[in-house]
Amino acid sequence: MRLKTLLVTGLGTAAAATVGSLASKSALQSWYPKLTKPSYVPPDLAFPIVWTAIYADLAVTSAISIDELRDNDAAEAKKYVAALGANLALNAGWSWLFFGA
């Protein structure tokens, strides 16, 4: 894994996480706390911890995959990068759709 690739995937995932977080901020302070939730809903503190781990894992595994593909099949690397970009856009966009920001 190359540091440059990790920085790019890290910045991309951080941007997606930030955009999603901004979308959910007002809802988490207004209507979401008023919902009747089942007893098995994780505590609020779990969400930022888990999402940080998920996005960090995505950044690292994507950097490894991209570098491996670039070394062996540049066309596949481009497809992977496009799919990663689409995934991050959908992840960020979902928060805007769900929370109605």
TrEMBL record:
Name by which UniProt lists this protein: Tryptophan-rich sensory protein
Protein origin, superkingdom: Bacteria
TM stretches of this protein: 45-68, 80-99
Xref: PANTHER family: PERIPHERAL-TYPE BENZODIAZEPINE RECEPTOR, TRANSLOCATOR PROTEIN
Keyword terms of this UniProt record: Membrane, Transmembrane, Transmembrane helix
GO cellular component, one term: membrane
Gene3D superfamilies with a match to the protein in the record: TspO/MBR protein
Location in or out of the cell: Membrane
Organism: Gordonia otitidis (strain DSM 44809 / CCUG 52243 / JCM 12355 / NBRC 100426 / IFM 10032)
GO BP term (any one): tetrapyrrole metabolic process
Assigned protein family: Belongs to the TspO/BZRP family.
